[in-house]
Amino acid sequence: MSRPTLIVPGLHGSGAGHWQHWWQQDQSQAVLVEQADWSNPDETRWTQALERAIVARPGSLIVAHSLGAILVAKLARSRVSSMIAGALLVAPADISRTSARHQRTYEFGTMPQDVLPFPSIVVASHNDPYMPFAKIQILAHAWGSRLHDLGHVGHINIQSGFGRWSNGYLLASGVGHQLH
Fold first, then answer.
1. Residue 2: pLDDT over 70
2. Whether domain 5-178 has CATH 3.40.50.1820
């Protein structure tokens, strides 16, 4: 891909072996959006870091996972939303379900519902422990995103068998085909 790519991990980041880690190595123009604290997501701080990355690389494709995908969806009303070329939102995580699974409350606000002003594809699984499939169908529709159903593959991370995920590149190029 010739377009710059911003990689946006979720809770705890995307360490060695995660498909986003491989993406960063494989794509010369891919940049990981760093957060000060990957284990304690804070909507305000995480949003500011992502907005700074977008301003530094306008026209980027965003490739986000889990809470990172929710963070990107929250940019619908951001002043930088027009600078985003498109987004691949993989396994978005329900905020309240994530808090319950980790037995703590995260400062991440409410689930975004606004139509995204940039092309997007949501990639989801029927048995993702972080998001019921019926809910992601509703959110993808609300966001104006195309939904790509991967079947029963968990949270689309290392634990569910996703290391170097070559098909992810094909899906991202599908977002690129939506670009004008």
1. no
2. yes
